[in-house]
Structures
1.
Amino acid sequence: MLVNLQAIDKKNKTAQVSIENAKTVIVLVLTMCILIGLTFIYNFPSLVATPIAKLTEGIKAIAARNYGQRIHLNRTDEFGELATAFNSMAEKLDEYEHSNLSKILFEKQRAETVINSLKDASIGIDTKGIILFANQQALQLLNLKEAAIVGLKQEDVQGKNDLFRFLIKEQNTIPFKIVVDGKENYFTKEQIDITQQENKIGTVIILRNITPFKELDTAKTNFIATISHELKTPLASADFSLKLLEDERIGTLTKEQKELVKNLKSDNQRLLRILSELLDLSQVDSGRIQLKNQTFSARDLIQKAIATTNNAAKEKNINISISMAKELPLIQADEEKSVWVMNNFLTNAIRYSPENGEIILKAEAKDNSVKLSIQDFGIGIDPSYQQKIFDRFFRVPGTQKKGTGLGLAISKEFIEAMKGTVHVESEPGKGSTFTFYLPANN
Ligand code: ADP
């Protein structure tokens, strides 16, 4: 029993020692676990959270166009790679922004310099009606400060500035007057559409100062008017002297002398015709067409024109037939100028018709006008010249007859001044019909 008790006691002590050892080991292991756990808990968030915070910060900076932002992580893991990729993206964006911005700024400045150095006043408007630019000359003419026009809607400026409203509304290109510094200046307006890949992106209005040309033109007109007027008197007296020379009571001329006088007379007549056309032209140019407001019949008009051209028609044995509509209103225009025009068309018809030809004069009512037409069966006019013949000094190339090329130009000006219109229809070799409309007296 004693031996058994001793053995039990010994085993008990051994067990006690083992328990103590196990306890120590467990405490040690537990402490280590807790320590490791605590270290992990303390370090892990900053290990993950710091790079994420830095990346978020970087992305926000990029979004705010701060392309100088860089991320420094000093790590070789995925976060490190992400930071490197971010930095190279920011670098590229930085490069792109700077190169584009400086380029755009440079181009903008260049465009502004070009626009401001233009001598002509220029205004640019986009398709939405926003005024993009107005150079110094334009601002001066409009009498506006840059801030009162650039960047604003054209409707807003139109309401405040009469000249701007006129420039936007007026579509034709006839010269107009603007008083600048107390002096009358003449301008023409040109409107150019700006397109990009066939799409209209805006309009530029350019005002060209044509005052120096206008002054030269006036000087030319006055010069022509004075010269023609001065030359007309001696020529008229030469014409009278030639008539006297033909008179047998003064003395008889030999056959050769008679021939010479005849030639002189026809040259004189031609010169007188040219001079009177030049005088009419200077009247048109100086805007001095003085129109009388008269009422007269188409019959009177036609008869008067025929009376002055009868001799020329007889010389070529040309028959002039008249066709008048039954119910014709009276014409409301300047009678003398209308006869001049009719006479000019008739003279041309005779000149460009063959001998023994035929000319038909027609008068009929059309809407609120009287339509007058002169038809011949002469040489006709090539279609490519039909609109040009109304230009000054234009003569169809190869025209044999002598002339100035002014008759039709003056006729057109006269007709339009009387609120009428003129048209031509013609076929080479078959003949021409000149038609003009004059307002009816209703
Ligand atoms: P001009 O007859 O003095 O040359 P116009 O202005 O009257 O000047 O006419 C201009 C041109 O038009 C003429 O030179 C002629 O070539 C052409 N023309 C005018 N009328 C006719 C016509 N009836 N038939 C053919 N050609 C014509």
2.
Amino acid sequence: MNLILFGPPAAGKGTQAKRLVETRNMVQLSTGDMLRAAIASGSELGKRVSGIMERGELVSDGIVIELIEQRLPEAEAAGGAIFDGFPRTLPQAEALDQMLAGRGRKIDLVLRLKVDDDALKSRIAGRFAESGRPDDNPESFAVRLNAYNQQTAPLLPYYEAQAKLVEVDGMGAVDSVAAAIDTALDA
Ligand code: AMP
């Protein structure tokens, strides 16, 4: 099973993906985590993307597509992939479909976590204090939310047209969102 966890920044995608890794033997493929690891390692890639990420803008499609491609074999060897924070643009979504098709696989389900903007902003205010993530500050978060609305939300019709989109209420507590996700996965 290959699953996309879809939603705006701070919707809870990472939290829910980590839970599914434990309960379903799947691999979490978070491009945000991969890019942060590249920055932490001091690599050339990390140097290229750190300013872009800090401002809350999207890094180029080519970079994230390549990062994902490198990790697909690992996900296949497990119970499948949970794509978290990828795809974020139409070219990324099309590239993902092509990469999977080339390996005889496909996206099975796109789970959209619905959380309203006010709830996202108050979540992020709390997270900034704890996470220390440089892009959780209010200015960068506004840019990230805007990138989601302008470049990522337009993917919803793409997946709806493929009849893969399922919406889950992401406003509740972590456990109740998890239960709603399980219901959708087992349906
Ligand atoms: P995330 O942890 O998913 O919120 O991602 C953190 C940041 O990494 C984003 O604000 C972007 O700068 C960058 N990033 C992560 N995934 C992608 C992607 N699929 N496309 C473009 N930029 C990405």
3.
Amino acid sequence: MTITRISFAALAASAIMAISAQAETLRLSHNVGDTTTWQQGAEKFGELLSAKTDGAYDVRVFPNAQLSGGDQMKQAEMVGRGALDLVVTSAINVTPLVPEMAVFSLPYMYSDYAQVDATTQGEAVKPLEAILDSKGIKVLAWGENGFRELTNNKQPVKSPADMKGLNVRVAGPMYIDVMNALGANPQQMQWSETLTALQQGVVDGQENPIGAVIIPQQVYEMQKYLTTWHYSYDPLFLGISKAKWDGLDADTQAKFQEAATEAMAFQRQISREGTDKGVAFLKEKGMEVYEPTPEELVAFREATKPAFDTWAAKVGPDLVKSFQDAVASAQ
Ligand code: X2X
């Protein structure tokens, strides 16, 4: 009788342990390959969250927009309606849902990281976070895709004139207008289809950040020329569905928040490190790199001004002004 009672108690204890050891697995979607800093940032979030919650939560990372049928622009909307728990994506991918998100990547909004951080790590992003919240997405932290640089297979690009007739793959609607302003032929395409399109010569070029995407996705294997024109900056954010967030108690929310803040700080750091070392690496790999002079950058800035104006109107003058003020304060 005693023995039975003891073994029942042991059984009950182990059952309780089994229940508490069973983690809730959250699904995180992102839209680039699993060799990128996006993936590393997402994995870091999962590790930190699991550690901070004593294993109550873990994160399964799905790259290449697999969970949205390869559609990188659809992820935000899916998180918004609770079909995905978490997303790491860049601002430009959210512009179909929230046009105001184009403010970051307006051509030549920023010229350095201090200016970037003055917005993404400060108050300027709060109105955007409020809009995303109203669409069902709680932004936990901002990361970095980075300054988007041009690669192509036709010729060195040193001036707007060199862009004439170049077939360039772009990610989103604003970049169509920017490329048109430069006289190029833009083609909007999913990132998941772009590497094949470059390989097969369907397009001549593309533009993406060096540390976060160009190097880890080995774009240098299929592109000869790189121009570091820094024409547009693209941040990442780590977002959680509001439905999920609102179901967490305050203590757990704080743990999610800490894990996200730390993971995106790490992701920004490794993206910047990869970019700093990147030009030398790309030259070693055989790319011909052109680094425009300040005067040449002014020429690109002037040529892209019509697209800036069109998209500044879509974003709204108050938001653009608040970003410009934050940028000015960083100087
Ligand atoms: O598609 C792109 O170019 C990428 C990976 O940078 C974005 O998600 C915007």
4.
Amino acid sequence: MTRGLFLSFEGIDGAGKSSHIALVAQLFRDTGRAVVITREPGGTPLSEKLRELVLHEPMDPLTEALLMFAARREHLVQVIEPSLARGDVVLCDRFTDATFAYQGGGRGFDWQVLGQLERMVQALPDGSLRQPDLTVWFDLDPHIAAQRLASARVPDKFESQPADFFAAVRAAYARRQAEMPSRFARIDAAQSMPAVGADVSRVVSDWLQGVAA
Ligand code: TYD
């Protein structure tokens, strides 16, 4: 049976990742694969309720981190693991790297404690840890991201944070990449939308050849 594949898409708000997920989905469908597109926080009815709370209610940093992981646990059990077991391709708009970036980097929450929660929530029956097979990181200067967001929409709790919050989020993504370089692909999201799209397609296609080989 074909092995399931798990890809996550990350970056600060305004980096433009969401527009490119459909492109990657098409790339996989063209090879005959079934694709599940999902997101975090969210992806199940309960996790979407938690998303509403966590994106709009002010709360203590530990509460925020725990709710992110609670939503993730439900999402893994209900959607991600069954899809991977079927051999599907799961494309997830944000995953645990976002918790390290936003709650760890942005909020300054303890990195080691996040690691403990990660190990608890993402443990597989064989003792290994569920992680994305590939993480596409849309990296962008927070000032450019802020300009893009200013013209876009009503900001949620995170989007309304100041530029230094996003500088810390970006630095935390870089730290995650340094800790787990083999699964990360960094995209220069300052480029034009078509150029970013071309980079994403190339990165995913090259990676897929490596997986198939
Ligand atoms: P986002 O994925 O950007 O969705 P949309 O494009 O609909 O706004 O929004 C999710 C927000 O949640 C984003 O600001 C990052 C934040 N977030 C965390 O703080 N921690 C997490 O673990 C995750 C998954 C997201």
